[in-house]
Amino acid sequence: MASQPSYRIASIPGDGIGPEVVHATIQVVETLAKILGTFQIEFTHIPWGTKYYKQHGRYAAEDCLETLRQFDAGLFGAVGAPDVPDHLSLWGLLLAIRGPLQLFANVRPVRTFPGTKCPLNTATEGIDWVLVRENSEGEYSGQGGRSHVGQPWEAATEVAMFTRVGIERIIRFAFETAQSRPRRHLTVVTKSNSMRNGMVLWDEVAAAVAHDFPDVTWEKMLVDAMTVRMVAKPQSVDTIVGTNLHMDILSDLAAALAGSIGVAPSSNLDPTRKNPSLFEPVHGSAFDITGKGIANPVATFWSAAEMLSWLGEKDAAVQLMRCVERVCAAGTLTPDLGGSADTQGVVDAVCAEIVKLG
């Protein structure tokens, strides 16, 4: 009898409601592993975040990359605190991981989820999209600087860096993602009418890569027009790919259009699998509800399901999502979705559904 596969997961709860939703998710995933009996999973707590920053002067340990490489994947909560500038927290932790580990594919599935109500009357069949975001360069490259600080003529530059290799690998990944979906349709989002260098390169690389995917219907669209299309003609959208900044914005819009950012997951992937990938909810720290016990854990549940699928436990991922969907459909919802359940109440309900699998 073959031994069960075993996975080591770095748990990085971070700030705000991050610890609450990560703790909730660990309970659910450990219950799933126990009931299914098809894999083993071990979570190791890593205390990086604002508290660590205030104690050590940095958001993560100096050897954070070497530490993470010891794990099969990471489950991340949120980063950011009201008393620390956002650019310090983001660059100190999340971007300090994504770039050096080359987690270049940020995947954000969005669909109308049980318990959510799509606010679009144009989405007569609901929403089912996958947004693919270039995650390692572009507008978030960190290139640029400031001069003449404090003077009326102070200047600041923010340089968007695009490389052919960076564009090609994310475009190819997006075509493969579209190819795996029933509609096999991809929209490449740029702004090449006004950004005549980097965005034109995006268009050229997309056209070249498309030749390798004759079974995928593809098109290019300007980012501003894409916002209108997502609202006016949601059924025409399936898989979308774009730059770091453009997809950061469009993915939040997509989650809101689908019903709630509280259920939106994301995956920071290294498709080469040379480095461990990182999975996290989209919603952020949400300090307005921190400590109240009402944070919605569904986005982190879904992120964990994406993690299990990435690790090869696809059946377990499907089973987890079915349990979560049944709980939401039955009305066990946190206040952000119009319900009255607290975080632990959702956890208990999902665990009860998982137990039924046994």
Automatic annotation (TrEMBL):
It comes from the Eukaryota. SUPFAM superfamilies: Isocitrate/Isopropylmalate dehydrogenase-like. Transmembrane segments: none annotated. Residues 8-350 form the Isopropylmalate dehydrogenase-like domain. One of its GO terms (molecular function) is NAD binding. Belongs to the isocitrate and isopropylmalate dehydrogenases family. This is Tartrate dehydrogenase.
